[in-house]
Design goal:
about 130 residues; mainly alpha; 2 helices; 2 strands; about 15% helix
């Protein structure tokens, strides 16, 4: 984000430009941009754990558990990796001024039913 033209609600200008490189790769527990044996080990170590499990511990569908569905995600993406971002790459940014609220006093209320992530089929135990 380029600092020029960016200010908060009090019209304080942003001090410096800021770049954030991020990625999402389902099955990559350690954030090394690939789904490998290390990620499979994390799922295996936590397999069957119920409640309070995080993404880094193998809960890829965010249900709080490490189950067969999470193991399937690793299996489907095993050997997949993402290229590193190009050095010095930046997204095109509009030169128009942008006002970004830093804090909000409004409450976020979910609307409707939560939807399932595409490509994830929930398995039922018999």
């Amino acid at each position: 984000m380029l600092a020029s033209g960016v200010s908060d609600l009090a019209h304080n200008a942003m001090v410096a430009s800021y770049t954030v490189n991020f990625f999402v790769l389902a099955g990559d527990t350690n954030g090394d941009r690939s789904v490998s044996f290390a990620d499979l080990v994390v799922v295996a170590q936590n397999y069957g754990t119920s409640g309070g499990v995080t993404y880094a511990s193998g809960d890829f569908n965010y249900d709080g558990n490490v189950s067969f569905a999470d193991l399937v995600m690793v299996a489907q993406r095993y050997g997949t990796s993402l290229a590193a971002p190009a050095v010095g790459s930046a997204l095109a940014v509009s030169a128009a001024p942008v006002v970004v609220p830093v804090f909000s006093t409004s409450r976020v209320t979910p609307v409707g039913k939560p939807r399932r992530l595409p490509g994830i089929r929930m398995l039922r135990r018999s």
